[in-house]
Amino acid sequence: PPFAFALGPVMLLVQPAVSGFWPPFGQYRWADETVRVSHQAKRASIERRKRRQLLEVEGSGPSEYIVGGVDMDYSSLDCPAEWLDLLDSDPDMGACLPWQELLNPTVGADFKTPLGVGMRWAGEPYKYAAPDPFGADPICTTGTIEDCKYSTPETRDLPDFLTTTKDLPDPNTKGWGAANDPATRSYPTLTGGECTKDDSATQWLDCGIPCPAPFEMTTKDLQISFGTPVIIFVALCTVLGLVALKKVGGKAENYFVAGRSLSLPVLAATLAGQGIDGSGTMGNVDLAYNYHFWDGFALPFGIGWSLVLVGIFFAKPLNDMKLLTLPDVFGRRFGPASEVAFGVFAIVSFICLFGSNLVGFGKVIAYVFGLGSPYAGICIAGCTVWAYTVAGGMLSVAYTDIVQGCFGYLGLLVGTAYVYHNFPRAPGVSPGYPLGDKNAIPEGMSDPDSYDPIPNAIFFNWVTIIVLALGNVAAIDFQARVLAAKDGTTARRGCFIAAALVFLIGGFTSANGGAIRALYGPSSPHAEFVADSCSRYITVIGCFGSDSCNAVPLSGVPTCGEWKPDPFAPLKMITCTKDTCNYFLDFDGSGGFGAGSETNHPMNGFLGGWMLIAIVAACMSTGDGSILAMGTCFSHNILRRFAPFEQSKLLRITRISTVFWTALSIGIACAVPDQTGYLLIVAFDIMLAGSVIPLFAAVYWPSCKPIAAFASIMAGSFSRLILEFALPKDRLLLLLGDYAQTYGAGIYDPNMLNIFLGKADGNIDDVCPQSKLADYSGVDSLVAPAVCGLTLILFQLLPCVPTESKSWWFTKVEPVEFVEGGGKTTEAEAGRGIETEAA
């Protein structure tokens, strides 16, 4: 969900109150060493678990307020009293912000800070301005984040005066017209609608937020410390997969279902490896950092439940059928039409699934080797996984999954335990979190406004769980492993063990999100904002008032309303090993390190590398299964129904087809290189739409009519496709909650600012226009399977639909049997599957 935080000027004003604030980056302090403020945190006994829809602020004394019904003491965020006489306060503005342009528009070249630091030229119209607390130039040049996460060009609103005034400026010139002094603005709507790294250029001058601190590790550091181990691990897995080529021995059964020989430990490991994929690790922690715990944990939670459902309903009956692929059950029960239809949608689904893992794998490769672009990493990842999978098939997949899985599982568990013990678990009370932040908020899945002031994509999170839990039941990669188990009982037990591993490891991985938010979130020194963005719904903490500099909660921010999460923040946290890495300031002690304490949390290099390899292993273990499933399904269930071929050619055709599916998956991943979890949901959304209900019918409804099954597959799948374009969507995934709002443009005119602050009459919608977000993504995911089920029942009940059709396409067929010694089947056997001839 798009949510906005603004550090506000508190980072500037609190800085002098804490000794050595962000020491790696600042070489001077703006206040004397002896200046301190009281860091007592006299928070009342009212539990912060009582969260309200909007944060209502009531004043009860200096720095003490009732926010959202909770007594809060913000004295630890006060700026020093010694500053009061030095500030250029304007009673009409009601703020004590020392260097904001509106409050000090005429600072001269000879003006100096309390410590004697001189002004620097900041260009027109700023003229001379102070450097930020770290000594950086007033115009920030350290921004690195190109894209906005919580807004799109379609959701950015401009005030009426910007869209109607005749003197609307060129975005490359200074100014928004006569309303205020000319100034360079980077509000995305005025720059072609796209966000750029220049969005944060004026976050110091316009918002009082220090320029983003640079990352401590260099590309060379990452290549030596982490790139080499990743290469070695990938090479090891590739060699292990190629060794399986000899074991295949030219036998299709060995290639597709590993000779139906997988024991319980191997089966559980390979099922868990398929479930704990790139989205369940990289995508999981990305979402937990960008949004909150439940947004990340929804992925492994849904996948884990799908394994439970497979174990209960399908593992034993499908294994007992001795099928080669999951589509075989559709051919056996409903005829080739349903078999081919299911196969086509399954391949489309798994192109997306493989693509989602390439996004995660490619991001790691691009990051550790400094490729600058994710596309090269995605291509390298795709080719690597394809090479060993195409050689050994299910044997390669199963035995590389053991190495990848066991090594990866342990790395994620040990690494997360280290982070949880040594790092801050959440930001706590800080400028962007007026009620504090926790690692996980229990109400996150029941109250759409529980993250106040963060919007909560609660509806889409529930849909994600449903889609993954039910859609994954029809996953051809899971079922391929079930079919490869040595017996039905082993298959069922393997599913349950794998589900437990997915729940455990997925939950541990999600727990990293709080630490990443603390170290790279909106209250961190690395934070970047869209300077020219306002929001009247969010609440931040700052030092305001004409007669004091006590910290107060401000309901709404006129500038820097939108925070830009760092897409590489999770990787940066686990690979930053220098002593100055991962800085954290615990403002009031709620972060767990003591009020006012400053700490650095360098990652243990060995554990960081282990966690990085674990992410790569997770991507590889699911990617290889996806390639194998697509190749098998295409050659065995689709191509041979239209162009029969000899059994001895099955392996060759399967291997050749994997080249095409790998290329398509690489293309899909390159289309959304920053969406590590999105493609996973899309993949099983496709399967849930039209395949899960017919699968239940195939196994548990012997009298189901073949035509009814085929009609339900097509109706559910195509209704999902139609609704994808028919429903209103802005791709921000917010449907419920009062915080689901767009952003307006930044406010700089004093008259407009007074309206925004409630100090002058006027319509706030005119100065900071915001509108309700309503993304119906997820509604289509629930409607489509309902259409599928209704169609199945309708066609089953219609008397005009025959129980047995005369058409071959709707005649039940048996899957082609394997023939030892490379035997051949006749055209009738291969194309129709009616007879089997012994070689």
Report a brief summary of the structure.
The chain contains 26 helices and eleven strands.
Sum up the structure in keywords:
mainly alpha, 3-stranded antiparallel beta sheet, two-stranded antiparallel sheet, globular, disordered N terminus, disordered C terminus
Could you describe the 3D structure shown?
With 839 residues, the protein is mainly alpha-helical. The protein has a 3-stranded antiparallel sheet, with no helix packed on it. Strands 4-5 form a two-stranded antiparallel ribbon. Strands 6-9 form a two-stranded antiparallel sheet. A hairpin with a 6-residue loop joins strand 4 and strand 5. Helix 12 packs across helix 19. The N terminus and C terminus are likely disordered.
Spatial order of strands in the largest sheet: 1-2-3
Indicate the percent of residues in helices.
40-55%
**How many distinct helices?**
26
Give the low-confidence spans.
Answer: 1-53, 87-106, 163-187, 818-839
Percent strand: 5-15%
Number of strand segments: 11
Sheet of most strands: 3 strands, antiparallel
What's the Cα radius of gyration? 30 Å
**How confident overall, as mean pLDDT?**
76
N→C terminal distance: 60 Å
Identify the overall geometry. Answer: globular
Query: Strand pairing plus helix content: what structural class?
Result: mainly alpha
